[in-house]
Specification:
Length: 255
């Protein structure tokens, strides 16, 4: 049984064959997935999906790239949705310094607001980080985010940073890049971070693992991420699957 902790089945890339994609995941032993909504349309679609499928859960939040678009009403809406029994986390949230749509100060403000909301409603947070590691770690510390903890989604940083995040009550989630031949950092993270602090994800439709790199990603491929971690740690795929599923269920409060 595999738990894909970060999917975008609410993305337009799945509009034509969503049921087939879900069926393939189930056939591969993917028992649970968290659909991540990060703006108005994707949050709405995520909620529709979790109402339809009992094995899907939602995380709702505001993406840093679109931070400039978030209103106070949106934050209130996210707070209201946080009470839904299928909403298990807030996010993805964080900082993204690759794209320049939203000024850094606005990104930081929106990030802080969502951390405070998560502490208010008692849900873990899902962190998006692109080229902003130092600022993200600083804000998580300043806002005492360890109180709720959460996930460093599709982690691409160093093993040292991963350890620092684990000490702040965050789990490290690895995706497709850990399977890339030249992916030195994710492989080091997979090696040194204990299994009880790891999660697996696809971030589909993005970041497909080898040998599908460059193609549309989908949840059934999360098994390839688990296989790579198993090889790196020299343990069975079953051990990786069980541990990462247990870790996810504990974090999300799923029995």
């Amino acid at each position: 049984m595999f738990f894909d902790t970060h999917v975008h089945l609410n993305a337009e890339q799945f509009e034509d064959d969503l049921q087939e994609v879900i069926d393939r995941a189930v056939e591969e032993g993917v028992t649970n997935m968290v659909v991540v909504g990060f703006d108005r349309p994707t949050i709405k679609k995520a909620m529709e999906l979790v109402e339809k499928y009992d094995f899907l859960y939602a995380s709702v939040g505001w993406h840093p790239v679109d931070a400039i678009d978030m209103t106070d009403e949106d934050l209130l809406w996210i707070e209201k949705l946080s009470a839904h029994p299928k909403v298990v986390a807030l996010g993805e949230m964080g900082l993204d310094y690759h794209w320049d749509k939203s000024p850094k100060e606005i990104q930081k403000e929106v990030f802080r607001k969502q951390i405070r909301l998560a502490k208010k409603v008692g849900l873990p947070i899902v962190i998006h980080n692109r080229e902003a590691t130092a600022d993200i770690v600083a804000i998580l510390k300043e806002e005492e985010a360890a109180e709720v903890g959460g996930i460093m989604h599709c982690f691409s940083g160093s093993a040292e940073t991963a350890q620092e995040c684990v000490e702040m009550n965050f789990l490290i989630s690895l995706g497709g890049p850990v399977t890339f031949k030249n992916a030195k950092k994710p492989k080091e993270v997979a090696e040194v971070i204990p299994l009880e602090k790891l999660l697996i994800e696809t971030d589909c439709p993005f970041l497909a693992p080898h040998p599908y790199r460059g193609k549309r990603n989908e949840p059934s491929y999360v098994t390839l991420v688990a296989q790579e971690i198993a090889e790196i740690k020299e343990i069975s795929v079953h051990e990786v699957a069980k541990a990462t599923t247990d870790n996810a269920k504990k974090l999300f409060g799923i029995n």
